[in-house]
Structures are given as C-alpha cells and as structure tokens.
Design brief:
Number of strands: 9
Largest sheet: 5 strands, antiparallel
Distance between the termini: 21 Å
Oligomer: single chain
Strand order of the largest sheet: 1-2-3-4-5
Number of helices: 2
Order of helices and strands: EEEEEHEEEEH
C-alpha cells in the first residue's frame, strides 16, 4: 500500500496485498462537497478486471462512520475476531474477515447505479493484521484529511 502524490495537495491511495500481481484498490479524485461530506473515485484491479466508480460519497452520517473509523477498529483488533465485519454506503462496501496466519482479507465491493439495476464487483486484498493494517488505516485517514 502506498500514498502517491499526484499534484501538490492531491493524493491517491493504492491498497494492494503482497506481490506485484495482487489485487488492488485505488482511491483518487478526492474533493470536499461541504464540511460533512467528501467525494472520491474508487478503482478495482484484479487479473484482467478493471472497474471504476467515479463518485463515492462519504458523509458524517454514514452508518458506522467514516471508513477511517472502521479501518482503525480493525487495526486495534489485530489479534483477530470471529465472523465478518463490514462498512457500507451506496457505492462501496468493505468487508473484513480475519484469516489464518494473522492476515485480514478486505473485500472491496464497488457498486455502480445501485438504484437502477447497475453492476457490482468485488476485489479482495489480503493484508497483514499488524503493521500493514495499521498503515492502511493511517493512509486512508490521510487520504480523507487532504484539502
């Protein structure tokens, strides 16, 4: 995973598991609509699949809070948990399961035109539950705090 500065003050975030051919998620094109809401694009890439949702809106009123709070909670529970945890809004769902060997599987489901029979796709990134997941959570927080 890494933060990439595109232009001064504008960053993209890539979340990728181990290996150069591992599935990846890219968050980009961040903008603030008001003091309570941000919009960004999300892109999924995996073995010939390339999907993009141009406009994911995250607000202070989204279910479990910002995606950052969800990921921070996963990082705090690095020793593991039972079952599945998820965060969702209309365009993006992130589901986490704790797997063997201290790894977390983050499944990122992109949904386009969800209210008019659109499409969806899911890409799963596997992240080490300790430092790697803590870094992903910190990088996502930094992505949302730009501007």
């Amino acid at each position: 995973m890494s933060l990439i500065e595109v232009v001064p003050g504008q960053v993209e975030l890539v979340v990728r598991g181990a290996g150069s051919q591992a599935p990846s998620i890219r968050l980009s094109d961040w903008s603030r609509t008001d003091e309570f809401e941000v919009v960004f694009a999300v892109e999924a890439v995996d073995d010939g699949l390339h999907a993009r949702v141009e406009s994911v809106t995250v607000s202070a009123w989204d279910g479990a809070g910002y995606l950052t709070e969800f990921l921070d909670g996963l990082a705090r529970d690095f020793r593991g948990w039972e079952g599945e945890r998820s965060w969702a809004n209309n365009e993006l769902v992130v589901t986490a399961t704790f797997g063997s060997g201290g790894h977390v599987c983050l499944s990122w489901t992109l949904r386009a035109d969800v209210f008019s029979n659109g499409w969806e796709c899911t890409v799963t990134t596997t992240i080490e539950a300790g430092e790697e997941l803590t870094t992903v959570a910190a990088d996502v927080r930094e992505f949302f705090c730009q501007g």
